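Predict structure. Chain length: 385.
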Amino acid sequence: MKNELIDFRGVGGLLPASLSRPGNVDAFAAERQSRLGGDRGVRSMLKVATLILLVVCSFSPFSMTAVEGRKHTLKLGTLAPTGTSFHKQLMLLKDRWGKASSGAVQLMVYPDGRQGTEAEMVAAMGLGSLQAGLLTAAGLSQIEPSVVALQSMPVAFRSLEEVDQIAVRMAPMLEQRLSAKGYAVLFWSDSGWVRFFTKQAVTLPDDLRKLKLFSWAGGKGEFEAWRAAGFNPVALEPNEIFSSLGTGIISAAPMPPFFALATQVDTVAPFMLEINWAPLVGALVVRKDAWEKISEAQRSELLKIASEIGGEIKARGRSEAAESVAAMKKRKLKVQPMNAEAQAAWDSAADKIRDKIRGPVVPVDLYDAVQGHLKDIRSGSGAGK
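Prediction complete.
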């Protein structure tokens, strides 16, 4: 077979094209050895030619294009049901990130708990099989326990405006702690108030004490707090709520209205107590090692887009709460309104478990910080801080 030659002028002469074909290296070496008079000359010439070839290729435009065109895939898990505003906004985030990065950053969204419970998703992120998650405070607490300060303080907030102000004040500290655990926060959000959905009418705490109440399986402290207050908690995962209500394992569950509508909880628990129990707070977090593989310039643009999406998720989630209640009323949901007597009774019930929340559930420093900020906000002395 004719031994074609590739002209590498400026690299040291002519090399056979067959050198790149498997099985031909030894033949070429033998041929060169006979010509050069020794194995040492062959090895020396090959080393020099290979080194120069690598240097030339490293500065070629094809090599630079490969580096600049590197793709980054981020797999994101969430419990958000398909079709909800949360899911739709995440899909919009995927599209906008793809366009902004010219396809270099690909976001893969897994809704409906397809990647497991939030605790399982956090474990998957720890192993690297997932790189990101849109998680509630309960899920985030598996990474950094202090995050529950935004969610696990019953009837602590009087309005969503207070929720917003506390989130702004607490976010820097919480983000720093999450960063220390290896996670970057792209945005915080919430979906409005958690309400109680029950199989029979509930207005006062004593009404709820007669029922079997869902308590998140990963929240041992919350479970103990419920028991200390005289309630009957049953530890389950969120994806077990609907079936457990249907079979009678539980007869009450706290959740935001949009989740009840999406999972049809109102068909098995047709009563809702209109209490502002606590906000359902969450955040989109991503592993820092995966995030920082993306160029700084691209990260800046992607973070800006994520912030916009996070704001839209919060706005839509809050408005969706009222829309969800209206939709469920058409399916015969009965709303139990709060009055002054009921509010006072629930405030008293929350006060009785304060010591079970401060410390066992919410770290003491975070609990006290939230209470201090709320005092400032309500007195007017902390306005604008």
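Summary: The first strand starts at residue 5 and ends at 8.
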